[in-house]
Specification:
The structure is a single chain. This protein is α/β, with parallel strands linked by helices and 262 residues long. The chain has one domain: Purple Acid Phosphatase, chain A, domain 2. 21% of the residues lie in helices and 24% in strands. The chain is built from six helices and 13 strands. The longest helix is centred in the N-terminal third of the chain and has 13 residues. The mean pLDDT is 96.
């Protein structure tokens, strides 16, 4: 069956202007991981329609970091759509990385590719990071999209993890704090909603609730363990970085998990 589109899902590059920035989480630096990711994507044996980056583009919300992000990620040969993560400065991301004169805050928007509509949500609302929050105004905006008389397939992208996964450090320390409201806003579109794609958790996860698929992706920098009952953030230092290839057909969402060496 002819696919509607293929896109690459990446997240949590955490790029720093310091080429040696790696902290305790990974044996390689964030820059090394991001450069290896770009090489990997540019060598794909097919041409994806675009790349979706679900946030934490930079290592911290420092405007100078986005010059380095632009230098590295600007080498990707395909269109890239960005979200802001809790480590990002949404205004600087738009001004420096995207070269926009007027930034949009919160940084949320829609776009359409091959008849599929994408809603990109900013989950960096008024809450203490690394937790997330989607503002009431954005929820109203999102629910309006989901309730519209629209038969087009739909995808939602957001940075923070929404649903509980039986891992205390993820469910208590990292999550979207108004996740139930976020999920409720999506329910009117579940018949055409092909997936909610997010980052933040530095691992591959899939959660299905009320017929809605939530899918995360590995970081290009470092990965975390998340065993049931685990209460502390724990680095998975032996895990390779990765990305996902998402294919949408008229009746199926297919996710291929890919890893690469740095």
């Amino acid at each position: 069956m002819q696919p509607l589109l293929r896109f690459v899902h990446i997240s949590d590059t955490h790029i720093s202007p310091d080429p040696d920035y790696h902290r305790k989480w990974s044996a390689h630096s964030a820059q090394e991981g991001a450069r290896a990711l770009v090489r990997e994507l540019n060598a794909l044996p097919f041409t994806p329609d675009f790349v979706l980056h679900t946030g934490d583009v930079a290592y911290d919300p420092v405007p100078d970091a986005y010059e380095t992000c632009r230098d590295i990620l600007g080498e990707i040969r395909y269109p890239v759509y960005y979200l802001a993560g809790n480590h990002d400065d949404p205004a600087a991301l738009q001004r420096v990385l995207l070269q926009r004169e007027d930034d949009v805050l919160p940084f949320h928007y829609t776009f359409e590719v091959n008849g599929v509509v994408f809603a990109c949500v900013d989950s960096n609302g008024p809450v203490e990071p690394p937790r997330g929050y989607v503002s009431d105004a954005q929820l109203t905006w999102l629910e309006g999209i989901c309730r519209a008389n629209d038969k087009r397939p739909m995808v939602v992208a957001v940075h923070h993890n929404a649903l509980p996964v039986d891992v205390p450090w993820l469910d208590e320390y990292m999550p979207m704090t108004n996740a139930e409201d976020f999920h409720a806003a999506l329910l009117p579109a579940r018949g055409r909603l092909r997936g909610v794609f997010h980052g933040h958790v530095h691992q591959n996860t899939e959660t299905l609730r009320d017929g809605i698929l939530y899918s995360s992706v590995l970081s290009s920098w470092c990965q975390f363990h998340a065993w049931p009952g685990m209460t502390h953030t724990t680095a998975d230092t032996g895990a390779e970085p990765g990305y996902n290839i998402v294919t949408l057909t008229p009746d199926q969402t297919f996710i291929r998990r890919c890893r690469f060496a740095v």
